């Protein structure tokens, strides 16, 4: 151990004493009862220092581990219970110090220290002193890093002036005040010393006080005599002594411009601003510095002022839109608000004078309050001159004059296409041979909206081109421009029309296609409702895509591969006004899909859903064309036949004379033979069926028929068993068998020998009998084939009539049993006119062949 | 002390919420560990509450309402003193600001404890809780060893947050079942203050509300 005297005035001259003698201490005894000790406690070192840490354990067998901020340290064991750790270039970690701790295996006991590592004290930088009022010096510096720790305060700063020998402890880390001596001390020599627990650092500064004057900001900035174009600015400065002159800098900001003036000032400053704009706010600011020995500018002092209003300097830019409604002209006047420079103040209202040029005595006056930018006028078909003026609180603007002619003079002007760009539309037009006072380009910012937002641009008479740009222009919107010339009489007349897109976009919609005239080979597509004007680009035509399974494309189309790799045929229509297309060369009964999409210079419409269609077969239309008329004709004939049935009947199959009305009856009556009567077929009851077995081959002759032996099937009781009241008259098909008639009063039905009993039994029932009769009847209508067994009926009628032909028999047969018969009428030879036997049989056959029957 | 809420349930709810907030270690313990460099393996496990430093949860639940409030007030008074002592180990201004905010919260909580004590039956004269006996002080004598003091501070704050968690649970029991726990029931206080009830204007206001069991 040794000691030294600490002298602040002469820190370099420290004298150390001699070292004391060594003392030996028994650590184990001096530490007390704790099992573990770590040293040194709370040591303070500078960053980058080398430090040695050690621990002493009471038990040498303890396995002790030591850590620096959680990282285990490797130490050097000096003795069984003493280990040291050498830390080199320790780093600053935190203001609360670095934790170093040791603990044994058990982990229940922990001992440690906090090593306080301080940042290295830096030399103050940018040390400077100045005065604003020559009474106080303000010294500032950059202190650098703070070396404050939990165990150490931040570094302190002291200011020492060597000429006066004064010293002050600064209260702040980066600045300090120094009172200037009342005597006129001009030179100052300062030493600034930074100091902490470990180190001292000093800097020096020598200066002349008058050269370090930093004036305070000017004050009392005022504006006087402010007119429309002029204003005077005055200000005051803080006194810095009687012998100092200040240089002041004045800046004026207005309308985006800056003007600067330098003024030499002792007490008060003044500056005149001229050439100002009316009704304009300006911002003026001033700062000052020592004119003799410039050190620093003062802070700015700024103030705003506004010039007075003046009458509007320009006439409003006026345009019109004229519509004819029911013999009147609806004139919508538009005007643009005057710019700030033109208005020279706040526009309060617009005056409109409407002067009838056809009747000079008639004029109308309107006042429209601002900020309106238009009005609507209902005028007759006369010509009018309209004056528009803008008014502010001071005066009136020049008038803007426009003529609305009674004759609209809308001549047809062909529309041209223009190509727009991001910067707008570049429009040009032909110069007019006559005198024009200017041109106006008119368009709508929102052509698709209900209010088109009419815009216009006026150019001079020598200009024949302009670029129209607007923030409202959107890609894919068609804009229409009209270029008017303004005559010397101020009458606008249409010169040219132009239309275009600022940027063309691919068509977004496909037309709604209607298919018609579908045949097996073709169909027709039409999209009449598709409007090409409302598309996002100029439509140049259409593509018709046709998908088919065959995949072959005919002439007029080309193969195309769609985005989904589908192959189809593409037809191209070059005329955007052509809105129908016939798809031909199709296959019958085939499936097709088609799509119609418009195309423009930037692409075609979306490839949306295809429409499906299947062609019909080739013959169906023909059949329909043939069958329908045929059916119609047949129906027509049937209707005619029905309507003319009576006529047809008379012509084709006249009524068979009624035997009751026959002259034969009169003949019978004249003979008064009660036994003779006319047979009513309804009164017949079949009693037997003759079955004829014809030989295969040719038809038998009449004579052979007569000689054949028919077989009879008795359906009714024979004469012996039947006790019917009246005699029977028998008939036979095909031939009239007189013999049979004679041999038996009731005829027998010849029965085929090989007829099965079942069939016979069936025939015995009335129903089966009717069927059999019906069948036989049907067969009798046609040609009987050779060798076929046929049935010939021999009806034996038990006549119920005894005298009165309308009276019913006592046991009448079923009327149905007598139906469906072909009958022959047998007239007794004695009563009828006697023909020859052969002819008699022949005539009977003929009658049957005509199919006479009763129902 | 400012004016008190005279509605028992509202005051109880406020105490519950305050306790719930103050139990969060992000208010004190976490910033302390961060600023002192104790967030290292091998150190964190030594930052545990010393047994007996604060009353346990069971001990708190076993107290009557009056005793509970007294214990709570006394313990928090110790905590305030200990937090003041902790300032010397916290150099950074933002950490000191955290410490000061926590102290203000504790003072506000203590104020509400006093208000609650006044609402308990028979409390008209004993509004100032008395300190508890030895063994409940959470502030052992600070040592000069910075490292040991740092660990002690950490343990103290750990115990503080645990203690406030227990306090919040006890207050919740008050709200859930005022008559479930005989010890926490205001019956005890009611019986004690029966003779004084007619003298206490606050107690007269308390009874008609029906918030306390009869």
TrEMBL record, chain A:
Molecular functions (GO terms): cytokine receptor activity
Keyword Transport among record annotations: no
Start-end of Low complexity biased regions: 832-844
Transmembrane segments: 622-643
Superkingdom per UniProt: Eukaryota
Keywords per UniProt: Disulfide bond, Glycoprotein, Membrane, Receptor, Repeat, Signal, Transmembrane, Transmembrane helix
Region (Disordered): 832-855
Membrane topology of the entry: Single-pass type I membrane protein
Record-annotated Fibronectin type-III domain positions: 217-310, 315-410, 412-505, 507-618
GO cellular component, one term: plasma membrane
Subcellular location field: Membrane
Homology family: Belongs to the type I cytokine receptor family. Type 2 subfamily.
Protein name: Oncostatin-M-specific receptor subunit beta isoform X4
Gene name of the record: OSMR
TrEMBL record, chain B:
Name of the gene encoding the protein in the UniProt record: OSM
UniProt name for this protein: Oncostatin-M
GO molecular function term, any single one: cytokine activity
GO cellular component, one term: extracellular space
UniProt keyword annotations, A-Z: Cytokine, Secreted
Residue ranges, annotated region (Disordered): 121-147, 175-214
Basic residues compositional bias, start-end: 180-207
InterPro entries in the record: 4_helix_cytokine-like_core (IPR009079), Leukemia_IF/oncostatin (IPR001581), OSM (IPR039578)
Organism: Neomonachus schauinslandi
GO BP, sorted A to Z: immune response; oncostatin-M-mediated signaling pathway
Extent of Low complexity compositional bias: 121-144
Broad class of the protein's primary localization: secreted
Alphabetical list of Gene3D superfamilies matching this protein: 1.20.1250.10
Localization per record: Secreted
Domain of life: Eukaryota
